[in-house]
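Q: My labmate handed me this sequence with no annotations at all. I'd like to see what the chain might look like in three dimensions before we decide whether it's worth expressing. Could you predict it?
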Amino acid sequence: MSERHHTQKPCMTAKLRQRSQRANASRRRIEAAAPYRKANRAPAAMTLLSRQPRRRSGLALSWLLLCICLQANAFKRVSAVNLRSFIGCAVREFTFLAKKPGCGGMHITTDACWGRCETWEKPVLEFPFIESYQRVCTYNKTRLVTVKLPKCRPNVDPTYTYPVALRCDCGVCLTSTTECIASV
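A: Here is what I predict for the chain of 184 residues:
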């Protein structure tokens, strides 16, 4: 039994000695590379060691950005579901039939203003007997796009120009850009 202890003990000591030697060698390489690191001239062994943490941080950054993008898309989906309770003005995709006399119609999908804005009226004793505060969802910033309508007669200009909403806000209705009075 005592012989067994003697044979196992040297093996364990050898393993511990090997670990210690590896740790010392690694420590010496790091200490030897310290002056080079300051001068931005890391030896090849140190270059490999120093790049691994950067790769991990880059991977972590990529995952973080992916999570943020997914959460932003989830927020868009949620806001699209709550359109009935949405109060404000937003840019939204809209399809309409563009037509003019002498040409065929064309379905156009564009960005337009959509929403509800704060509006109120209250009665007053003097003429016009009502005080009103009426704001509508209207264009704030647009760009114009021109298309050619199909099947136009020879003497008819086929071009059709329409606005694309870039930004929408609640504001006073301007008859120059918006049809303000709805027909009943």
